[in-house]
Amino acid sequence: MSIFREMERRDSIRMYFCHDPDVGLKAIICIHDLTLGPALGGVRMSVYQTTEEAIRDVQRLARGMTYKSSAAGLDLGGGKAVIIGDPDTDKSPAFFRAFGRFVNELNGLYITAEDIGTAVSDMRWVHQETRWVTGLSKRMGGSGDPSPVTAFGVYNGMRATLEQVFSSDSFSGRSIAIQGIGKVGFPLACRLAKEGARIFVSDTNEVVLKKAHQQFGAIVVPVDEIHTLDVDIFAPCARGGSINPKTVKQIRAKIIAGAANNQLEDDKVQGPLLEQRGILYAPDFLINAGGVINVYQELARGGYRRDKALALAAKIYGRIKQVINIASVEGIPTTEAAMMMAKDRINRHKKKRN
Q1: Domain 2-62+77-139 listed as CATH 3.20.20.510
Q2: What is the pTM for the complete model shown?
Q3: What pLDDT sits at residue 12?
């Protein structure tokens, strides 16, 4: 079992490479910023083709958590972890307990939680080795799966974009294309359908597509076509990078607002291009903050309260409106406005500390 740290000057990133050959664990923990508090971010498990690919992913995800927590008004820094492995075949209690020991060595600098490829049930094994874990089951005093609160936050962010573009935040009669109907996309689609929206969905999971069609009449669309539909809102809710040099030119939606992290392959390229095309983009780290808001409540005095988590997630509506206003006043894309808002809070905290 070994751990070593690699420091990079860019963005003060700290990276911890974790390897336990006895259980086959290979993981990377990345801490991006600790200005506002300890770095909280989930652990993602995925089959990466190379270590370099995993490094790029964890760095980008950790950076996103810094700005997500800051923009959400949370006293948290940004961090993330990735486990290199197949979530369908490589999991075991010993596997996650080993990861928990690595987390514990950082003594609270990094707090982990579930993410893509991991689940609340996996966190119980991490918890066997460290207290620096959130997203625990309700039976263990945690909040359970944060996905419904993430979906609720995205729903409120969508309302803000509708009000901006159509002068009404009603979903009745609106068309929404949801790319990925997993843990967040599915409850989001359910809520929108109940409010009268016409829902289009794509996913690689045929079972969940059939369920969405039967449960609320979702129209199934091929994965490579969902972003091209002429709809009111395109909602990326799968993996990041779906808006890239190729797809950005094919999008016909008036609004992009979804749950995925790192939706734009390059914020500095696709952000201005969407602005030029008149497409309103709800910055991903702002609109999808419901999950981190939810697990943050587990750290609060007195324990987790669902009503408080939902109340804070509802405030995403106002934060999206604030970013839209900043973008309008400054004449900049919403991507830049959101980053400005997040960095401003971090910089103000640095000045107070100095």
Answers
A1: no
A2: 0.88
A3: 55
